[in-house]
Specification:
The chain is mainly β. The chain folds into two domains: 164 residues, no CATH class; 72 residues, Sandwich (Immunoglobulin-like), CATH 2.60.40.10. Helices cover 14% and strands 40% of the residues. The protein is elongated, with a radius of gyration of 24 Å.
């Protein structure tokens, strides 16, 4: 009887070890790198996404016609297959960064394209990928079942936008709130350009943008935050251009 019990324990332990070994053999790892100068992940407003926002790494069903479903988030989500998740976090003082690694014993993902699905609450979504060869899930059981990807690789936007140094989510439905332009007092000095405004609800989200040409695509976000009432611009390049334009607006979040 003792022999039978010992044999059963040994068999169970062997099966557990074998199962773990098979998982490692059939598994793959996706590493995400966040280096200096790479795009950050941001909301539609241009503000960096806060720490804790989840990014799913995954792909779409193999028989799913992605091109015909563009703009249909219900169809896109229905065909989504998740490989794993990472959290956005602040790295070296810069918010909106994604870094880490995801391992999964899921051989069905082998050699399929990698996508990032970024959900900012229920109101905004970003879906990003790249045409680079490293943006394919490793073949499970291969000699090196790992691949390295980063935000700087991304060149294909399914949902959202890529503007300068930001990968931005987009509203999931409806029309985004139109910004209310504010009247701003501007004082230029040798060392700074001082912008001041008042009369706002302290809960309002404020964004300051700048343009040197007044062209639709020339505006760049230079600061933003909740309850801002002033901004001191000390950027040497902008100070050297006395003909630059500032715009301050507020959008309900």
């Amino acid at each position: 009887m003792k022999f039978k019990r010992m044999s059963l324990v040994l068999i169970t332990a062997t099966l557990v070890l074998l199962s773990g070994w098979l998982n490692l053999c059939l598994g793959a790892t996706v590493q995400v790198n966040a280096g200096i100068g790479q795009p950050i992940l941001a909301a539609a407003s241009g503000v960096a996404l806060p720490d804790g926002v989840q990014v799913e790494l995954g792909t779409f069903a193999q028989d799913f016609e992605l091109d015909s479903a563009l703009g249909d988030l219900t169809a896109l989500r229905g065909a989504w297959e998740s490989f794993g998740k990472l959290n956005i976090r602040t790295i070296f003082g810069e918010a909106g960064r994604l870094a880490g690694e995801v391992f999964a014993a899921s051989p069905e993902f082998s050699a399929r394209r990698i996508y990032w699905w970024v959900a900012f609450g229920e109101a905004e979504v970003g879906i990003f990928t790249s045409s680079l060869p490293n943006w394919h899930f490793p073949v499970a059981g291969s000699v090196l079942p790992s691949t390295l990807v980063s935000a700087s690789d991304i060149d294909t936007i399914i949902q959202g936008a890529l503007k300068s140094d930001k990968l931005m989510t987009a509203p999931t439905s409806g029309t985004p709130a139109k910004p209310a332009l504010l009247t701003v007092d501007i004082e230029r000095t040798v060392i700074s350009t001082e912008l001041r405004w008042s009369g706002l609800d302290s809960r309002k989200h404020i964004e300051v943008v700048y343009s040197d040409a007044l062209q639709p695509d020339s505006w760049e976000s230079i600061t933003s935050g909740v309850g801002l009432t002033s901004f001191s611009d000390t950027d040497p390049k902008r100070l050297a251009n006395p003909l630059g334009f500032y715009r301050v607006s507020t959008v309900d979040q």
